[in-house]
């Protein structure tokens, strides 16, 4: 799944929202993002410079709630469910290949 981060949305909030959509669970039912990484540090990594200039480039990938999350330039997310995710295993058993 591709997800475009809105201008007013923090990267950490976008990660939780996007993973929630992919995983089919409410955001509050996901494990805290802080168990994987520091949300404030994630936001700071892609925030503008102190003088207001936007940061350019940068990519970070990590695993969160059975998904590989890739943040590109603090503007886009790619969310890929892991093969060993329980839902992926049940979908394969049911013949679903989406």
UniProtKB/TrEMBL annotation:
<protein>
    <recommendedName>
        <fullName>Halobacterial output domain-containing protein</fullName>
    </recommendedName>
</protein>
<feature type="domain" description="Halobacterial output">
    <location>
        <begin position="8"/>
        <end position="81"/>
    </location>
</feature>
<dbReference type="Pfam" id="PF18545">
    <property type="entry name" value="HalOD1"/>
</dbReference>
<dbReference type="InterPro" id="IPR040624">
    <property type="entry name" value="HalOD1"/>
</dbReference>
